[in-house]
C-alpha cells in the first residue's frame, strides 16, 4: 500500500542510546535504473514500502522523466517507486546527504536508506526500527530524557519479536510459502502513563505510534490514525460511487482501515473514514501517517458462515422444511449469507434460527440432492438460461436457508436476528389481502425495473426470482404473515444488492 512518508534521517550524538543504520527495501519484481555512464552496479536493494526519489541535494525529484522502470508520479508530481511494482533495484554507490545515507540508483536519482530493507539479499533492518517523525526519547518514568531522534532515524530496539495468532495493537505481517497464509509478529510494548513505547536502550523509550517499520517490515497500527489530503477530492462509497462529501487539500482526516477494492488487478487500497464509516478515499489522495490493517471488499459488505461438520449441509425453505437439496461440503464449506431469521417449524413446534443464503454467491456445482446424488437439473442458473428453471427451482435458488446450528460465523459482517422467537409463532396466522398490500405494492413497482448498464446479471436475476417468490406468496391462500414479511424483506434486500454488491457470473 502506498505509504510515502518523508522521514529524513540525521546523525545525532546518541551513542549511548541508538545506533543509526541505513539500509534497504523489499519487493517482488526487478527495476533497472538507466545510467548516465557505464558504471557497474555495486549491488541490489529491496524496498520496505513506496520510496520517493531524491536528487544529490536530498530534495525530492518532481516531474522528472527519469528513465526508471516502474517509477511513477504521486498526486503532487513527486517521483517514487511503488513497493508493489518494484522488487529489486540496482544501486551504484552510496552517498551521505544532509547527514543521511542514500543509495545512488542512477540517472541522478537516490533512495533514502530508511526505505530500504535488504542490501544484496541481507536484511539490514533486522533488530532495528525506523521512525516516521522526529521523536523524543523518554525514561521509564515517562519523562523526556533530553534527547530527540530525527525523522527516519534507524534505531536498534531491545526485546525479542514474537509471533501471535491475532492482530495486536502494533504488528507486522508476512506470508510463508509453506501455507501461503498471513502470519503476525509483534515486539512487546512497554506501557508508560497509558501510552505504548518501544525500548531502545537502558531506561530509554520511543513512542510506538512514531515507528514506521520494524525488522524491515511496515509496522501496522491496529487503531485510528490520521491522513493528510493531498488534493481536493470527494469521498467515495465502497463500490466506487462519488459522494457529495468534499475534502480539501491539506485537511486532516481520521482513517481506520485499508480496503482492497473490488477488482481483479487492483493497484492499491481505499481508506475508510473513521467519522464517516460508509465513505472511503483513494490512497493516492492522502499522505497516511501509519500503516493500517487491510481488508477486502467482500469482508466489508458480506457475511460468511462456515460448516461445523464435513457432512453435506441441507437447505431449508421459509417454513423450515428441507427443500431436498444440500451444499456439497467437498466443494463448498463457507457460505455467503445475507439474513438471520427465526423460523417457526410446525414439525418441532418451536422457533429455530436460520441463515438466509445469498444465492448470487454459489453455483450449481456446489449443490447435491439430499441423498448425495447429483442434481438432475440445475437449482441455480445463469441469466441467459434462467427461463429453463421451474418456479419452485427459482424460489429454491433465491430463498433458501441453512440451520444456524449447522454452521458458525466465519468472517465479514456479523448478523443479528431480524425477528424474535416469540413473534414467529404469532406470525403463523393466515395473511389477509390487507396484510399483503405492502407486498403487492412492492411487487408491482418491481416489475417496472428493467436491466440496465452497471447492474450485475446474477444480482438482477436474484431480484427477478424474488419477484417470482412474491407472486407465489401473493397468490397463495395459505400464506402466513411470516411468509409475507419475509417476501417483503427478500424483495427489498435483493433490490439493494444490485447497487451495492459485485459478484462473478455463475453458470
TrEMBL record:
Coiled coil: none annotated. Keywords: Signal. Residues 89-114, 188-208 form the S-layer protein C-terminal domain. The keyword Heme does not apply. Residues 1-23 form the signal peptide. Pfam families: SlpA. InterPro entries: SlpA_C_lactobacillus. It comes from the Bacteria. This is SLAP domain-containing protein.
Amino acid at each position: 500500500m502506498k505509504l510515502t512518508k518523508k522521514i529524513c534521517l540525521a546523525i545525532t550524538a546518541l551513542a549511548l542510546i541508538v545506533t543509526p543504520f541505513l539500509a534497504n527495501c523489499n519487493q517482488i519484481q526487478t527495476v533497472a535504473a538507466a545510467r548516465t555512464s557505464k558504471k557497474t552496479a555495486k549491488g541490489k536493494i529491496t524496498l520496505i514500502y513506496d520510496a520517493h526519489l531524491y536528487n544529490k541535494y536530498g530534495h525530492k525529484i518532481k516531474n522528472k522523466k527519469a528513465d526508471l522502470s516502474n517509477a511513477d508520479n504521486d498526486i503532487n508530481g513527486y517521483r517514487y517507486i511503488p513497493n508493489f511494482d518494484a522488487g529489486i533495484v540496482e544501486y551504484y554507490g552510496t552517498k551521505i546527504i544532509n547527514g543521511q545515507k542514500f543509495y545512488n540508483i542512477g540517472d541522478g536519482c537516490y533512495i533514502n536508506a530508511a526505505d530500504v530493507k535488504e542490501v544484496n539479499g541481507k536484511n539490514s533492518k533486522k533488530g532495528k526500527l525506523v521512525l516516521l517523525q522526529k521523536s523524543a526519547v523518554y525514561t521509564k518514568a515517562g519523562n523526556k530524557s533530553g534527547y530527540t531522534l530525527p525523522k527516519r532515524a534507524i534505531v536498534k530496539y531491545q526485546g525479542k519479536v514474537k509471533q501471535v495468532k491475532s492482530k495486536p495493537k502494533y504488528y507486522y505481517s508476512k506470508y510463508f510459502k509453506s501455507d501461503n497464509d498471513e502470519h503476525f509478529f509483534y515486539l512487546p510494548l512497554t506501557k508508560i502513563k497509558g501510552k505504548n513505547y518501544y525500548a531502545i536502550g537502558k531506561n530509554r523509550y520511543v513512542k510506538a505510534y512514531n515507528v514506521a517499520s520494524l525488522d524491515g517490515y511496515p509496522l501496522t497500527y491496529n487503531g485510528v490514525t490520521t491522513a493528510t489530503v493531498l488534493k481536493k477530492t470527494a469521498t467515495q462509497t465502497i463500490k466506487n460511487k462519488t459522494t457529495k462529501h468534499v475534502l480539501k487539500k491539506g485537511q486532516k482526516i481520521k482513517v481506520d482501515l485499508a480496503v482492497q477494492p473490488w477488482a481483479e488487478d487492483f493497484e492499491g487500497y481505499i481508506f475508510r473514514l473513521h467519522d464517516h464509516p460508509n465513505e472511503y478515499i483513494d490512497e493516492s489522495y492522502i499522505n497516511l501517517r501509519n500503516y493500517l490493517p487491510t481488508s477486502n471488499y467482500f469482508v466489508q459488505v458480506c457475511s460468511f458462515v462456515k460448516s461445523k461438520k464435513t457432512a453435506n449441509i441441507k437447505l431449508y425453505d421459509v417454513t423450515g422444511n428441507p427443500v431436498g437439496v444440500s451444499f456439497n461440503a467437498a466443494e463448498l464449506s463457507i457460505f455467503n449469507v445475507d439474513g438471520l431469521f427465526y423460523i417457526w417449524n410446525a414439525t418441532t413446534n418451536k422457533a429455530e434460527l436460520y441463515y438466509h443464503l445469498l444465492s448470487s454467491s454459489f453455483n450449481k456445482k456446489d449443490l447435491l440432492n439430499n441423498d448425495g446424488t447429483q442434481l438432475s437439473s440445475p437449482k441455480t442458473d445463469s441469466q441467459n438460461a434462467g427461463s429453463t428453471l421451474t418456479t419452485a427451482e427459482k424460489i429454491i435458488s433465491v430463498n433458501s436457508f441453512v440451520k444456524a446450528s449447522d454452521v458458525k460465523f466465519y468472517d465479514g459482517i456479523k448478523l443479528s436476528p431480524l425477528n424474535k422467537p416469540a413473534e414467529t409463532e404469532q406470525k403463523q396466522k393466515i395473511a389477509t389481502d390487507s396484510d399483503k398490500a405492502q407486498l403487492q405494492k412492492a411487487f408491482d413497482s418491481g416489475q417496472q425495473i428493467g436491466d440496465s448498464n452497471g447492474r450485475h446479471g446474477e444480482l438482477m436475476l436474484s431480484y427477478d426470482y424474488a419477484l417470482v417468490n412474491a407472486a407465489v406468496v401473493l397468490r397463495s391462500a395459505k400464506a402466513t404473515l411470516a411468509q409475507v414479511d419475509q417476501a417483503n424483506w427478500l424483495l427489498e434486500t435483493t433490490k439493494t444488492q444490485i447497487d451495492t454488491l459485485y459478484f462473478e457470473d455463475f453458470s
